[in-house]
Structure of Methyltransferase domain-containing protein:
Amino acid sequence: MFPNVLEVARKLIRERVQQGETVIDATMGNGNDTLFLAQLVQETGKVIAFDIQPQAIAKTKDRLEREGLADRVELKLASHEEIESLNVQAAAIMFNLGYLPGGDKEITTQASSTIRAIESGLRVLRPGGIMTVMIYWGHAAGEVEKEAVEAFCHELSQLEFLVLKYQYINQQNQAPFLLAIERRAQ
Amino acid sequence: MFPNVLEVARKLIRERVQQGETVIDATMGNGNDTLFLAQLVQETGKVIAFDIQPQAIAKTKDRLEREGLADRVELKLASHEEIESLNVQAAAIMFNLGYLPGGDKEITTQASSTIRAIESGLRVLRPGGIMTVMIYWGHAAGEVEKEAVEAFCHELSQLEFLVLKYQYINQQNQAPFLLAIERRAQ
């Protein structure tokens, strides 16, 4: 069977990230991707993870400590727009657009700040690095955000980036899909 | 780097087709996919390949003979709609929609017959089997055909099929993209 879209995103990241590299989880949520990335970069690597909700930070911190992975992770209670201020070269950046599963569905990512965060992320992405954007658009602001992100990606220079859209198109209920942006190696 | 869409299609097929199975090349063209499939199913397998242009048959026949693969291939000078009349269980079916590279660009696949051929193909696809549809839509009838095929795929039952759309979205010149339809295993 075709893999689900989250598995596809992780596979693309696994194929590109080396042990010891710096990676970013732009939308920590319940910390699933943070844990995945922390395992991937190993002890010598670094994960920088963002969320604006204290409950996301608390839950992720707890999970990382239980797994013995907290040493390599920096948790930031801040908007993912703050990627702008990072002075790093990231091998991978993960976004999950939508709301925190199990949290307040009224608190969602929003088109304008998401676009700014993606722009900032692309500036710190190393050559050959990858940004994955999982788009959960089954919420009030979801359709607007989806359109905005797709429109932004359509315009990215094909000399610098290659943007993959990976979607199962005969699904009901506005199934999530994946955008994966690879910065071309120089 | 992300693989090109043709490589993606072939990988999906390679992962699903067993030696000795029957597969279909719905749009023979210059025979590239016919040769690929003939190697894949090996001596005990069978490839049935369609084209309405005699030059496609002649060229593919010649290439197969030179490669020693002609024994397992049946070349049909007929529309891919004739898939309807086949009494087989196919493990894979490949479509390239557009015109014959290097041939007459006025002779292209057309929406209505393409949809009928895809429908027929899905009827003979075995559980767990896959149909790949490469859509080259940079020709006069291309946009109409693309829209029709996508609309058809959107409506396929998700209980029976899973339809993947795999597309690089920041490309110029109406770059080809892939639809891959997997019949769920029973």
Q: What stands out?
A: Strands of chain A lie at 22-25, 46-51, 73-77, 90-97, 125-135, 161-168, 177-183. Chain A is about 35% helix and 25% strand. Residues 138 and 172 of chain A are 11 Å apart (CA to CA).
